[in-house]
């Protein structure tokens, strides 16, 4: 995929995710946050009991927590490196995605 295509997809996904609550991630979300989904589940239900479920979690909590992982306020050997490369808008985007998912669905 070309850089231009990736950029356009990313822009489109921002518009999509802010304009409607959708359960299935766009290709751009998958490309950017696929690594998150590999542990926390694409539906926000984690793949292992020791990984937290994020479906339906409060958006502001998710934003705050990811910033704390990123700046080391909440030190964690797994989530620290995961949050490091995220921009504020990445954090907003993924927090909104998980907050919009229905909790309790398996
Ligand atoms: C290798 C598995 C793994 C990956 C990949 C991963 N996480 Fe996590 N995540 C965890 C674990 C384990 C915790 C619990 C950390 C702790 O002990 O506080 C966690 C915690 C979190 C929390 C805090 C949940 C809470 O209830 O406080 C958030 C938010 C989160 N992850 C988001 C993400 C995002 C966004 C990504 C992708 C950038 C991601 N994670 C990638 C395993 C993972």
Describe this structure in words.
- Residues 1-23 form the signal peptide.
- Keywords: Electron transport, Heme, Iron, Metal-binding, Signal, Transport.
- GO terms for molecular function: electron transfer activity; heme binding; metal ion binding.
- Helices cover 58% and strands 0% of the residues.
- With 106 residues, the protein is an all-alpha fold.
- It has one domain (3-100): Cytochrome c-like domain (Cytochrome Bc1 Complex, Chain D, domain 2), CATH 1.10.760.10.
- Residues 15-22 have low confidence and may be disordered.
- Residues 33, 35-36, 38-40, 51-52, 54, 62, 65-66, 76, 78-79, 82, 94 line the site of heme C.
Q: Would you list the SSEs in sequence order as H and E?
A: HHHHH
Number of strands: 0
Hetero compounds? heme C
Helix % is 55-70%
Shape: globular
C-alpha Rg (nearest Å) = 13 Å
Reading off the top of the CATH hierarchy, the class is best stated as: Mainly Alpha
Low confidence ranges = 15-22
Q: Give the CATH architecture.
A: Orthogonal Bundle
Tally of discrete structural domains: 1
- Global structural class: mainly alpha
Q: What do we call the CATH homologous superfamily?
A: Cytochrome c-like domain
Give the strand content.
Answer: under 5%
Mean pLDDT: 87
């Amino acid at each position: 995929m070309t850089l231009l295509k990736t950029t356009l997809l990313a822009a489109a996904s921002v518009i999509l995710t802010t304009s409607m609550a959708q359960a299935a991630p766009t290709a751009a979300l998958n490309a950017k946050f696929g690594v998150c989904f590999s542990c926390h589940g694409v539906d926000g239900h984690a793949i292992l009991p020791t990984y937290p479920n994020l479906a339906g979690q409060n958006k502001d909590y998710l934003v705050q927590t990811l910033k704390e992982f990123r700046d080391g306020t909440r030190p964690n050997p797994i989530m620290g490196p995961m949050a490091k490369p995220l921009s504020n808008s990445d954090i907003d985007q993924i927090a909104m995605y998980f907050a919009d998912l229905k909790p309790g669905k398996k």
